[in-house]
Design goal:
Order of helices and strands: HHHHHHH
Distance between the termini: 31 Å
Shape: elongated
Number of domains: 1
Number of strands: 0
């Protein structure tokens, strides 16, 4: 089984190991490192060099290569998540977290067949949560603050996955991270 949750996002070393497992240059540009660090290690990802064969990693690349996370419908997102789960690349918990993203898209009245940039959607969601947290500081309760913290952590984990899946997609097209800068 190939796992996308074997390498933490705690820093450049982990991404370098992942790239080395793929046979790509470990010369990672600062944009990718910043994206990795920006999520504060929320969810972990990799195509784990020790737990998957080349064929398994290739299968994950083929799945991810079919989807553009900057231009994807909620229906396609569900298909992507299901395919990754069926391949063993993501856990039940990760699939459940992505189902929360689909729920958020529905709550925002995004049509299941309307293309959306998931990065922009989640960035807007994080801004909204930040605003709610600021409002909550003056008038909210502790339980409201805890719920906002939970929602923020979930949204950061979703964003973290998107960054990593998009990086895998770009690498799967034969490009190195340096070429994507």
């Amino acid at each position: 089984m190939v796992s996308l949750d074997g390498i933490s996002t705690g820093g450049r070393h982990d991404l370098t190991n992942y790239l080395a497992a793929l046979g790509k240059s470990p010369n990672v540009d600062s944009r990718v490192v910043a994206a990795e660090a920006s999520t504060n290690g929320a969810a972990a990802v990799s195509a784990a060099s020790d737990s998957g064969t080349v064929d398994q990693r290739s299968a994950v690349h083929q799945i991810v290569a079919e989807y553009d996370l900057h231009n994807i419908t909620p229906r396609e997102l569900s298909q992507l998540v299901q395919r990754l789960h069926d391949s063993g690349a993501i856990s039940d918990a990760d699939r459940a977290n992505f189902s929360l993203l689909r729920r958020d898209l529905e709550a925002a009245n995004v049509d299941p067949d309307e293309s959306i940039d998931l990065f922009t959607f989640l960035e807007d969601r994080l801004d909204e949560l930040r605003g709610q947290a600021e409002d909550n500081e003056s008038s909210g309760t502790g339980s409201e603050a805890q719920e906002l913290a939970r929602q923020t952590a979930s949204t950061l984990a979703q964003y973290d996955w998107l960054v990593k899946l998009d990086t895998i997609r770009q690498l799967g097209d034969g490009a190195t991270v340096d070429q994507q800068a």
